[in-house]
Amino acid sequence: MDEAVRGYIDAIAPEYRPLFDRLHRLILAAHPGAVVVLSYQMPTYKVGNRRLYVGAWKHGVSLYGWQQGRDAGFTARHPALKTSKGTIQLRPEDAVGISDDELLELVRGALEN
Length: 113
Hints:
Elements: H1 3-10, H2 17-30, E1 35-39, E2 42-47, E3 50-56, E4 61-64, H3 74-77, E5 82-84, E6 87-90, H4 92-95, H5 100-111
Antiparallel strand pairs: 1-2, 2-3, 3-4, 4-6, 5-6
């Protein structure tokens, strides 16, 4: 992991760091060969020609970058989450009720060819 990504992660607010770390761990578990770079000022996981951007913001953590229909049904199963085309905002209190398996499905849907 390059220094820019490490700096970004180290600067994440303590209340959001566990959620970011959980997503980071799950993404690398699903795609151990993913390259992590800083793009659009946030950590970006690259697998082939696919990208998944994960940014920490004032509400929690947002995931960006998959094509419509590649979220493995995640947004349909969680209609209360704030979403828009290719974006999911996860607050720590929302993520508590979402299993690792379900997040792994989302990651796989977003990053697999």
